[in-house]
Design brief:
434 Repressor (Amino-terminal Domain), mainly alpha, DNA-binding
DNA sequence: CGAGAGCGTTCAGTACATAC
DNA sequence: GTATGTACTGAACGCTCTCG
């Protein structure tokens, strides 16, 4: 029995994340950070080569995985690449144990991983608009995606039962996703970075009439931070309710994104 | 426009663990 | 003990990009 996930995908995800942070980041740079040869990494990612248990531990360490993630990663490697059948079986059994132990957390993480790209939410909203067409080419063009991305997205959304197809038309099931709150997972970070990139693009691509970008730079006291964060959440909820009220007697015809950032501008984050 | 740097990839060779 | 498979290394290739 094969593990559900391949360690190769974990490595690819980390590389992709670093590339988002730094567009000049490369496979070679990643290999340098992991302290392995670029040729080695290239072949690992292309599935032409495996990883030894020693390397797996070293990579988990350099990726700064926590104890559970590290254990999961090394067992994934062992389950695939251990030389002896005995070691592969042991690793496989360990993976089952880890899976049962963290089943709920894993489910939430897996769910968010599937929708960690910005366009999943955008597609779900686009479906509710008046001009929506259940045509992958039209959807791809509307959101600036490739048809392959749209194909994959709809396959996942159908699997997650977030949408259904009746009479050749996509319909939202209205099911809300319970994504992990406050968990600094790679998926959530990736989602936020993609949205920020979209916001940056809107500065040059969209007219002032189409968008609203505003910034407030302000000095605060750190003990007020929880109250201020709560206020932002309240505004977001109020904004959402207002939109819902406005759409009581008409259908939406645009998909917009409201993204708020409130963050520390000081390089030294210690008080 | 040429030089140099960096990129991803392939390939030959080596070392070592496992299977028989 | 030997054959086999494979992780790993380093050299090299062709390509792109940047800089002077």
């Amino acid at each position: 029995m094969q593990p559900n996930e391949h360690y190769r995908d974990i490595l690819k995800e980390h590389l992709e994340f670093r590339k988002i942070q730094n567009t000049r980041y490369s496979l070679r740079a990643f290999a340098r950070d992991l302290e392995i040869a670029p040729s080695n990494l290239s072949e690992i990612l292309r599935g032409k080569q495996g990883i030894s248990p020693q390397k797996a531990i070293q990579i988990a360490s350099t990726l700064k995985l926590n104890k559970q993630e590290s254990e999961y990663f090394t067992n994934l490697v062992m389950a695939h690449d251990a030389r002896s059948k005995k070691d592969r079986n042991i690793a496989q059994r360990n993976l089952e144990k880890i899976k049962i132990f963290s089943e709920k957390k894993q489910l939430q993480e897996d769910t968010f991983k599937l929708i960690s790209d910005w366009y999943y939410y955008a597609i779900l909203e686009l479906i509710t608009t008046s001009d929506f067409k259940s045509n992958h080419k039209w959807i791809a063009k509307t959101l600036g995606l490739t048809t392959l991305e749209v194909d994959e997205a709809f396959a996942r959304l159908l699997r997650l039962k977030l949408i259904k197809k009746t009479g050749g038309q996509y319909i939202s099931t209205g099911i809300q996703l319970d994504t992990t709150h406050g968990v600094p997972s790679l998926s959530i970070k990736k989602f936020c970075q993609q949205i920020l990139n979209k916001a940056m693009k809107s500065i040059t691509d969209q007219s002032v009439d189409e968008r609203e970008l505003s910034t407030l730079t302000v000095a605060i006291h750190s003990e007020d931070l929880p109250v201020l964060k709560k206020k932002i959440q309240e505004f977001r909820n109020e904004f959402d309710r207002l939109i819902a009220k406005k759409l009581e007697n008409k259908k939406a015809n645009k998909v917009y994104c409201l993204s708020m950032q409130f963050f520390n501008l000081m390089e030294n984050k210690n008080d």
